[in-house]
Design brief:
The chain is mostly helical. The protein has helices spanning 2-17, 39-43, 53-75, 86-92.
Length: 93
């Protein structure tokens, strides 16, 4: 237990030194920071319908199946490539 706690403290202090973890003790364990994403993006919630892993995977499966169907129609003799907006793409799903 003591060795694990020492390793954890070492990890946390390294993150604080690099500016990746807030060292303000009044906020509990601190929060991860990002050098790339703005705070508004970090705090934005994940949509509820894909928050759980099962729902997200089901959504991705639906997208892949839709893309497969679209590729089959493009490859057919009467098919052709069409351009559409993201909203139109989602509507066709």
């Amino acid at each position: 237990g003591a060795r694990l706690q020492a390793e954890y403290r070492n990890l946390v202090s390294g993150l604080v030194d690099r500016g990746l973890l807030d060292s303000n003790p009044s906020e509990g364990a601190g929060e991860l920071a990002s050098n790339v994403l703005g705070p508004d993006v970090i705090e934005e919630a994940v949509p509820g319908n894909i928050r759980r892993a099962e729902h997200f995977v089901a959504f991705l499966r639906k997208v892949v199946e839709h893309l497969k169907a679209r590729l089959r129609t493009v490859a057919s003799p009467t098919g052709g490539v069409t351009s559409e907006t993201p909203l139109a793409f989602l509507h066709r799903m």
